[in-house]
Amino acid sequence: MTGYRQVLAVPGMAPLLSVSLLARTAITADVMALTMYVVLGLDLSYAAAGGVAATLTAGVALGGPLLGRMVDRRGPRAVLLVTTVAQVVFWLGVPVLPYAVLLGAAFAAGLLMVPAQAITRQAITAMTTAGQRRAAFALESVQGELSYVVGPAVVILCASTTSPGVVAWGVGAAIVAGGAGIALLNPPVRAEGEADVGAAGPAPRREWLGAGMIAVLVMAFGTTTLLSGVDLAIVAALEEAGQVSWAAAVVAVFGLASVAGGLVYGVLPRPAPTWLLLGLLGLVTIPAGLATDWSLLCLAVVGAGLLAAPTLSSVADAVSRLAPAAVRGEATGMQSSAQSAGFALGSPIVGVAVDLSVPAGGFAAAGLAGIAAALTGCLLVRRSPARTRSPHGEFDRAGTPQPREVSAGTPQAAEVSAGPGA
């Protein structure tokens, strides 16, 4: 755990991760809060609630790169203040908006969602050394898993005891508090020596949005498609077994296994290629469909859980190494958009598989989606240049972070091989 102590000892890192956890937990819960409001507050169908959730998610996916570019040009504080004010307006209005207006407002709120996750990732890249970065991104991925486990559960619990409009206000208040807190901290998004890197303007996309970066974005999409699909597959399998009330317990086991896997991955002596982690995640997901009751399903999802956070961590690390400092915000925004798109599409893909076959088919569809993304990423990486120079002066292959400390003034002639197919 020495690596984690070193990361948390970095000035400003512990407060940033704490405030970011608050913001990300609330943002993770926003879809559930809107669903509860539409179903319980407006007395409409779940399909109507799904429409609001879809427009919010679409806004988040489209807004990620745009907000990232604004961060590159204006800095994090300006973007955080604008998005925080937008969230104040939206969430205050939720309990009084008619459904038709709520649809449009949700899309606008998604476009201007507080970019807590993206800014945290940029700050991690700027605040840590190459040797600390894998442990730092492991903590960030664990933070995401914790927010996923806690946020929606708290919303469901509160919605059963109080007004759904009040719950929506509470979620909005937490998002605003998190955004304001990160703005107050104003974390750096460029390391020392990178402060003036954007003075000549951002690097053209053709210089950094090559096969390596596209491979990582495809794997980011595939990872969240799989994870979103697994959630629905769990519910479908337990509904067939007449044990749907145990779905929350299985999802909790899945999340806790992911937390454990992320913490272990962050202290391993050598990282693994992103495509390999994602491929293994897909492979171990498929057999979970063979479980016949909730207790066996708890055991079956542990393997996938142990690989979930490490895969997400590896994706974030790869993006940070492939993106030049001047466009790191835009690249991180693209990563967030790819993951949002995966979360949005995972459930429908698995839902179709379940409808056309059996609940076990849902796990198969989710796993195969992950495997397909891993194979695509692997093929794209093989097409990319043999060495890609990272913005920190190391050489590595896309999708296989190779931490290496470089002393000041040392000629960077040695190249680090990432191994075949990395």
UniProtKB/TrEMBL annotation:
TM stretches of this protein = 46-66, 214-238, 244-268, 275-308, 360-381
Asked if the Swiss-Prot or TrEMBL record annotates the protein with the keyword Membrane, the reply is yes
Q: Where is the signal peptide?
A: none
Q: Could you tell me which Pfam families the record lists for this protein?
A: MFS_1
Name the source's superkingdom: Bacteria
**Keywords for this protein:** Membrane, Transmembrane, Transmembrane helix
InterPro entries to which the protein is assigned, alphabetical: MFS, MFS_trans_sf
Which SUPFAM superfamilies does the annotation name? Answer: MFS general substrate transporter
Enumerate the Gene3D superfamilies for this protein.
MFS general substrate transporter like domains
Segments carrying the region annotation (Disordered) are 386-422
Cited PANTHER family: MAJOR FACILITATOR SUPERFAMILY (MFS) PROFILE DOMAIN-CONTAINING PROTEIN, PTHR23542
- Name this polypeptide is given: MFS transporter
Q: What is the lineage of its organism?
A: Bacteria, Bacillati, Actinomycetota, Actinomycetes, Micromonosporales
